[in-house]
Write a sequence for this structure.
């Protein structure tokens, strides 16, 4: 798509996933996302969602079943997140959703293992996954996606945004939630850990003088 010295972040367009973008979503996962990793071919990111799909985890091993559920999940706002576009083509994806709505999904078990989630009265937006086209890796696509997630979560009145990076180094495929350095760049700090992952959080602020005017915490 372009050389190693690419510097065109201003032309990356970030769009919230909606049913109108379903075809783009499907095309990305069927033709772009995992062309260099057949193990995860056509994953459709269905593990991380607001459906209590732990009981159908075995069924979701079949890519055709995953596709059927992906269509349902996108149309019903069960999968949520953002698509990154460059030159009219989807080049990246970030799966992000309301934490409390996703505690029954199979993906949450991947994150938490045997660690039980603590019930909280605060609103937390969870960042679950980044997927970037092989030709666009290292081009700051995940940075652009996370920046948009933070902006919208703040506007929507969330108290915190939370992520779950790996405890140990892994290859880029199993580092799908994003590296610790990405989150530290945006002011995330370690909040805790689960059996399988670290838990990083960023506090989102709203000005006391104007509840409708949001103020993003400065990056480190």
């Amino acid at each position: 798509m372009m050389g190693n010295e690419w510097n065109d972040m201003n032309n990356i367009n970030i769009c919230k996933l909606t049913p109108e973008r379903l075809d783009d979503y499907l095309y990305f996962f069927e033709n772009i996302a995992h062309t260099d990793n057949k193990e995860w071919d056509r994953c459709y990111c269905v593990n991380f969602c607001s459906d209590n799909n732990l009981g159908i985890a075995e069924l979701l091993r079949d890519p055709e079943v995953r596709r059927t559920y992906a269509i349902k999940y996108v149309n019903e706002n069960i999968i949520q997140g953002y698509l990154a576009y460059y030159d009219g083509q989807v080049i990246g994806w970030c799966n992000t959703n309301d934490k409390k709505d996703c505690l029954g999904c199979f993906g949450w078990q991947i994150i938490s293992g045997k660690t039980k989630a603590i019930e909280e009265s605060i609103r937390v937006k969870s960042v679950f996954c980044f997927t970037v086209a092989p030709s666009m890796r290292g081009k700051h696509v995940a940075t652009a996606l996370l920046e948009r997630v933070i902006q919208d979560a703040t506007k929507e009145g969330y108290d915190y945004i939370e992520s779950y990076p790996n405890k140990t180094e892994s290859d880029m495929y199993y580092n799908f939630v994003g590296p610790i350095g990405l989150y530290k760049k945006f002011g995330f700090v370690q909040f805790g850990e689960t059996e399988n992952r670290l838990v990083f959080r960023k506090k989102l602020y709203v000005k006391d003088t104007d509840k409708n005017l949001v103020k993003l915490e400065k990056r480190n």
